[in-house]
Amino acid sequence: MNTLRIGLVSISDRASSGVYQDKGIPALIAWLERTLTTPFQIETRLIPDEQSIIEQTLCELVDEMACHLVLTTGGTGPARRDVTPDATLAIADRVMPGFGEQMRQISLHFVPTAILSRQVGVIRKQALILNLPGQPKSIQETLEGVKDENGKALVPGIFASVPYCVQLLEGPYIETDPQVVAAFRPKSAIRETKS
Ligand SMILES: Nc1ncnc2c1ncn2[C@@H]1O[C@H](COP(=O)(O)OP(=O)(O)OP(=O)(O)O)[C@@H](O)[C@H]1O
Ligand SMILES: Nc1nc2c(c(=O)[nH]1)N[C@H]1C(S)=C(S)[C@@H](COP(=O)(O)O)O[C@H]1N2
């Protein structure tokens, strides 16, 4: 069985040194538990904003833990110690610019400073790696997108594209609760699964 493995990395000087409690990993776990109907295993890491540590952590999660998806939170802004995108690009095989573009589009609906995030999406080997901003609320915002008062998607969250991307990377078939975020695939890629 090729179980879906997801790496979660919270990158924060203050949370990793105990100045405040990390809210990034719990928010990521809560969102994934609410959304994924496919069983998954997680690997979590809480680390400071140090480029070499971020690079090492991402490589370990992809190369040794064999994660199919890695979500980072924090360190995407313009401050001197915000180096998550730089570390992510340094270990990438290929860049997926659409993820960064779409996240900033979505985030502009929530904060006027959305363009301050340098967040990127990349592929390393079998894994899709996505940077999310550090504000814990931005996790749900960017993954789930913008909805109207009836829950209809106005701007699709980036997670709509994640299952098909992982499928194209020959990873497990990921299914989601469409009430949270509907996974989109072309008809030819849709598989019948037991409900
Ligand atoms: N892991 C976290 N847990 C709780 N809150 C966080 C976390 N990371 C960031 N935040 C909140 O979001 C804000 C913006 O995040 P950012 O990644 O820019 O952090 P920062 O200001 O560089 O500081 P630090 O790296 O020490 O978290 C922080 O100032 C903090 O209020
Ligand atoms: N969805 C969303 N995107 C967001 C934000 C937010 O609160 N929600 N904060 C913005 C701000 S204020 C900054 S500085 C950048 C970078 O944040 P980071 O350094 O915490 O990653 O993300 C931006 N993108």
Structure explained in plain terms:
It is a single chain. The chain has a single domain, classed as MoaB/Mog-like domain (Molybdenum Cofactor Biosythetic Enzyme, Chain A, 3-Layer(aba) Sandwich), CATH 3.40.980. The protein starts with a strand and ends in a 27-residue tail after the last helix. It is globular. Strands 2-1-3-6-5-4 form a six-stranded mixed beta sheet, with helices on both faces. It is 33% helix and 21% strand. With 195 residues, it is an alpha/beta fold. The chain is built from seven helices and eight strands. The mean pLDDT is 97. A hairpin with a 2-residue loop joins strand 5 (121-124) and strand 6. Adenosine-5'-triphosphate (ATP) binds next to helix 1.
Number of domains: 1
> What ions, cofactors and ligands are bound?
adenosine-5'-triphosphate, ligand MTE
* CA-based shape: globular
* CATH topology annotation: Molybdenum Cofactor Biosythetic Enzyme, Chain A
Largest sheet: 6 strands, mixed
Oligomeric state of the chains present here? single chain
As a percent range, the share of helical residues equals: 25-40%
Give the amount of beta strand, in percent: 15-25%
State the fourth-level CATH superfamily. MoaB/Mog-like domain
Terminal-residue CA separation: 18 Å
Rg for CA atoms: 16 Å
Helix tally equals 7
CATH architecture label name: 3-Layer(aba) Sandwich
Q: What's the SSE pattern?
A: EHHEHEHEHEEHEEH
* Structural class by secondary-structure content: alpha/beta
Instruction: Please provide the count of β strands.
Output: 8
- CATH class label: Alpha Beta
Average pLDDT? 97
Stretches where pLDDT is under 50 for at least 5 consecutive residues are none
Sheet with most strands: strand arrangement: 2-1-3-6-5-4
